[in-house]
From TrEMBL:
<dbReference type="InterPro" id="IPR036038">
    <property type="entry name" value="Aminotransferase-like"/>
</dbReference>
<dbReference type="GO" id="GO:0016829">
    <property type="term" value="F:lyase activity"/>
</dbReference>
<dbReference type="InterPro" id="IPR050571">
    <property type="entry name" value="Class-IV_PLP-Dep_Aminotrnsfr"/>
</dbReference>
<comment type="similarity">
    <text>Belongs to the class-IV pyridoxal-phosphate-dependent aminotransferase family.</text>
</comment>
<dbReference type="InterPro" id="IPR043132">
    <property type="entry name" value="BCAT-like_C"/>
</dbReference>
<comment type="pathway">
    <text>Amino-acid biosynthesis; L-isoleucine biosynthesis; L-isoleucine from 2-oxobutanoate: step 4/4.</text>
</comment>
<dbReference type="Pfam" id="PF01063">
    <property type="entry name" value="Aminotran_4"/>
</dbReference>
<dbReference type="InterPro" id="IPR043131">
    <property type="entry name" value="BCAT-like_N"/>
</dbReference>
<keyword id="KW-0456">Lyase</keyword>
<protein>
    <recommendedName>
        <fullName>branched-chain-amino-acid transaminase</fullName>
        <ecNumber>2.6.1.42</ecNumber>
    </recommendedName>
</protein>
<dbReference type="InterPro" id="IPR001544">
    <property type="entry name" value="Aminotrans_IV"/>
</dbReference>
<comment type="pathway">
    <text>Amino-acid biosynthesis; L-leucine biosynthesis; L-leucine from 3-methyl-2-oxobutanoate: step 4/4.</text>
</comment>
C-alpha cells in the first residue's frame, strides 16, 4: 500500500505533467517508523519545512505539522503491516508549465518497505576522485542534487569500495556517499559543516545534540582529509545506523575505537 496525496492505494499512476519529473522541482525524505513511532520526527519535519521554503511551496496539510506527519506515516506503516518500516516521502510542486512556478501547492507520494538497521563495520572506504560535493541553497536536503550521489555510488562500485567520501572542490571533507561523516579525536567529536554542501542529516543533528547534552565537545567545520586519516575512529551516520570505517585508502584506522564511540552508540538510542 502507498499514500498518494493522502489517499491509501494499492498502486498508483502519477499523472503528467509532473514538475518533480520534469524539473526536479521537489525533494524527498527517508524516514523510519518502528513499533508505531516515527523516529526523529521533529528533525525530519524541520528539514521538510526548510526545503519547502527554499523551493517556494507549501507543505500539504497531512504533512504540515510534526503531529500530522507522524499520524500520516504511522497510517502507512500500519496499512503495510510493517512493525519496522523504511518510508520514502516524495514531494513536488503541483501543476505544469516551464521553469516559472505555477503556484505554491504541492503533491506527495509515500511508500513503505521493511526496515533493518545496519551497524556493521565498513571495510574499505576512500576519497572520491571523480565527484565532489556542491554547496548550494538546496544541498542541505535530499532530492535536488541526487544525481551527485548516483555518480558517487557508481564510482564506489567501479573502484570496489565499501564506502566513498566526498570532498568539496577545494578539498575539504564533506560527507559519505549516503551518510554523514564523523570522527573522534582526543575525546572530541568532529563532523563537516553544512557549508561543505553535505546533507543536513537528521541522525547527524540528533547525534550532535545528544553528544553536546552530555558535555562532549563537538566541532563542525571545514577539514582536510588528513584530519580524518589521523582520527582515533571514523564512522558514518544515517537512518540505518552508525557504522565504523576500518580502512580509508591504504590506511588502516585504529582497531579498537575509543570509549566515546560506545558511549555515542548508547546515547543516540535514547530520546533527547
Amino acid at each position: 500500500m502507498l499514500l498518494l496525496n493522502n489517499h491509501l492505494l494499492p498502486t498508483a499512476a502519477l499523472p503528467l505533467p509532473n514538475r518533480g519529473l520534469a524539473f526536479g522541482d521537489g525533494f524527498f525524505e527517508t524516514l523510519v517508523c518502528v513499533d508505531g513511532q516515527l523516529r526523529y520526527a521533529a528533525d525530519h519535519h524541520a528539514r521538510m519545512q526548510q526545503a519547502a521554503a527554499a523551493l517556494y511551496f507549501q507543505l500539504p496539510a497531512p504533512l504540515a505539522t510534526v503531529e500530522a506527519l507522524q499520524t500520516t506515516l504511522q497510517r502507512l506503516a500500519a496499512a503495510n503491516e510493517l512493525p519496522a518500516a523504511r518510508l520514502r516521502l516524495q514531494l513536488w510542486r503541483s501543476g505544469g508549465g516551464r521553469y516559472k512556478p505555477p503556484g505554491e501547492e504541492a503533491e506527495w507520494l509515500a511508500t513503505a518497505e521493511p526496515y533493518a538497521a545496519d551497524q556493521t563495520a565498513i571495510g574499505r572506504a576512500d576519497f572520491a576522485r571523480e565527484n565532489h560535493s556542491l554547496p548550494s541553497p538546496l544541498s542541505f536536503c535530499k532530492g535536488p542534487q541526487a544525481w551527485l550521489y548516483v555518480r558517487a555510488a557508481r564510482e564506489r562500485q567501479q573502484r570496489g569500495l565499501d564506502e566513498i567520501i566526498l570532498c568539496t572542490a577545494a578539498g575539504h571533507v564533506a560527507e559519505a556517499g549516503a551518510a554523514a561523516l564523523f570522527w573522534i579525536q582526543a575525546g572530541e567529536l568532529f563532523t563537516p559543516a553544512l557549508t561543505t554542501g553535505c546533507v543536513a542529516g537528521v541522525r547527524r543533528a540528533h547525534l550532535l545534540r545528544v553528544a553536546r547534552q552530555r558535555g562532549v565537545t563537538c566541532y563542525e567545520g571545514q577539514y582536510e582529509p588528513t584530519a580524518v586519516l589521523g582520527a582515533a575512529a571514523v564512522f558514518t551516520a544515517n537512518v540505518a545506523g552508525l557504522r565504523l570505517i576500518r580502512q580509508i585508502g591504504a590506511q588502516w584506522l585504529p582497531a579498537t575505537p575509543p570509549a566515546l564511540w560506545s558511549a555515542l552508540q548508547r546515547w543516540e538510542q535514547q530520546p533527547d
